[in-house]
Design a protein that fits this description.
Elements: H1 4-9, H2 15-35, E1 40-47, H3 55-78, E2 82-86, H4 94-107, E3 114-121, H5 123-139, H6 150-155, E4 167-170, E5 189-192, H7 202-213
Parallel strand pairs: 1-3, 2-3, 4-5
Helix pairs in contact: 2-3, 3-4
The structure holds farnesyl diphosphate (FPP).
The site of farnesyl diphosphate (FPP) has 20 residues, from helix 1, helix 2, strand 1 and helix 3.
Length: about 220
């Protein structure tokens, strides 16, 4: 969800107003995905690097997340959305963790869209944790190093149980991945738009999905005869 700061600056507003406007986009995109029967959406909401932002901005984002969880819970329930998170949740402030746990618990039985918020998330750190888990299992003699395969690594990532993404959308025109789902996006299709996140709405999401639907995914193989 990139470009909140630039959206605000272009309007002569403080950065936090961009984050506020970003919540409007979040609401529209999540509702559209639920209505269109999209089974999984993962939103890069706060990276491990984002902790280095000014304290006031970090505090504002944490408060915004809490308000989102409290105000939108009804909307999530109505749309049958199940909420999950990935990332180092232990780094999140205690009150935010409590609200996240409550929202996850009360949506756990929902069977529609699975909405995963990546919070205090970094893909390399996630991979390191999976490697540590496997190393511990090998040291304990539970796993033989030569048996370790891609499925075993994937099963120890925080995304285990969620399929790899079909489509990755990056707003605000940056041509980089920024430590997001590095393992999981090996064969993911990419869509980069110059639109700043607060202006990203369902009409543009639909264009991205239509473009995606016209692509041929070969997963490294040759075209079917
Ligand atoms: C990146 O834009 C955006 C963020 C670091 C925060 C994203 C947060 C929201 C959309 C608010 C709602 C989220 C939740 C989970 C309630 P940027 O600040 O890096 O923008 P810039 O690159 O233009 O400076």
């Amino acid at each position: 969800m990139d470009g909140n700061g630039r959206w605000a600056r272009a309007r002569g507003l403080p950065r936090i107003r961009g984050h506020q406007a970003g919540v409007e986009a979040l609401r529209d995109i999540v509702t559209a995905c639920a209505e269109w029967d999209i089974p999984y959406v993962t939103l890069y909401s706060f990276s491990t690097e984002n902790w280095a932002r000014p304290r006031a901005e970090v505090d504002f984002l944490m408060g915004l997340l809490q308000r989102y969880l409290r105000h939108e819970l009804d909307v999530l329930q109505k749309n049958n959305v199940r909420l999950l998170t990935i990332g180092s949740s232990e780094q999140m402030p205690e009150p935010v963790r409590r609200d996240l746990a409550a929202a996850m618990q009360s949506t756990a039985g929902n069977t529609g869209l699975t909405l995963t918020l990546a919070l205090s998330y970094g893909s390399r750190a996630e991979i390191v944790e999976a490697v540590r888990a496997l190393a511990r299992e090998a040291a304990a003699g539970v796993v033989c190093p030569d048996d370790i395969d891609e499925n075993m690594v994937a099963a120890r990532l925080q995304t285990s149980g969620t399929p790899d993404p079909d489509l990755l959308i990056r707003t605000s025109g940056e041509m980089r991945i920024s430590n997001f789902l590095l393992w999981q996006i090996a064969y993911t299709e990419l869509w980069v738009t110059p639109t700043y996140w607060p202006d990203f709405r369902r009409a543009e999401l639909l264009r991205a999905l239509e473009d995606y639907a016209g692509r041929e995914r070969r997963f490294g193989k040759v075209e079917a005869p």
